[in-house]
Amino acid sequence: MSKTLVNFMMGLWLIFSVGAVSQPASAQPAIEDATPHPMVPLPADGYITLDEFTDFAVMEFPASPGDRRSGFDETVAVEGAYRKMEYAVEGLELSLIRLYRGYLQHFESGGFEVIFSGIGEELSGRDGYNFITYESGFLSRTPSTASDTVAYILARSPDEQTVLALSFYARQNARRMLINAIEIEDMAPLDLFAPEPEPEPEPQPDVALIQQDIEELASGLVADGRVIVNAILFEFDRADILPESAEALATVAELLRGRADLKLLVVGHTDGVGSFDYNLRLSVDRAQAVVAWLRDRHSIEGSRLRAAGAGPMSPVTTNRTEAGRAENRRVELVEVID
To answer: Is pTM, for the whole model, over 0.70?
Structure first.
């Protein structure tokens, strides 16, 4: 091989080597169509870079300062359905302390129990870095060692059925928040036999929106202790509330504002198509979405609302027809008497 050719190839190698080393780390892309956790609103200009779900997990969250060496004097152990998410806001203009205090205020005003919270040295050495990195990938995803500080919130929902651990940190020129959420429940037995193939779900037919006034909702609660809200609709096979439901939800909020002593159980119902476990989960998610809407958009105190799901267990009519299934997919309000 000639000396000229060798020099030319060495030059190419140097160009590509230097280029590869100098490339900055790329941020995780936003997950399309990902929806925020119903109890943890997404910040303005924020996006979701991680969304994982496990049907059952056993978790132990720190509830006091500490790190890998010293351990933690207090922890909270829970088990149930597990969801892990990461929110991000591009850039570092939004201060971490403002983000942290904003979520503290959100939980406290929503009736959550803040079990433990801290920022910086309140958590551990290295301005809290040792706290959120004590177990790889658990409370953070490789936070920057050059960030200004980190923070942490451990909270329990007003109905005491969900525990949330939020970690705040910076990475790849973005503010990050990692959410570990456990919806507390007992582990159901595992069905070892393959289920029969489920029928393809039919699309929901167009449903005429029948708006109810406050008097109709109130009279149903007084007479029967429960009332169906007719005009709350969701995306097909999802817990996303359709925009045309806004008027019905505003009426529910007005009812609650007019009766300061009223507390409600928001119950989601599904039709009988699909597996029992799937429908039960969907009904709970939809009920939680309604509670989050009333709390976040209408400032209804979270302590006055509790989400529950009945899945397909309480149909109002037959599931043998599409019209019947459409009627069974509904949201009910049940009065809670202390």
So the answer is: no
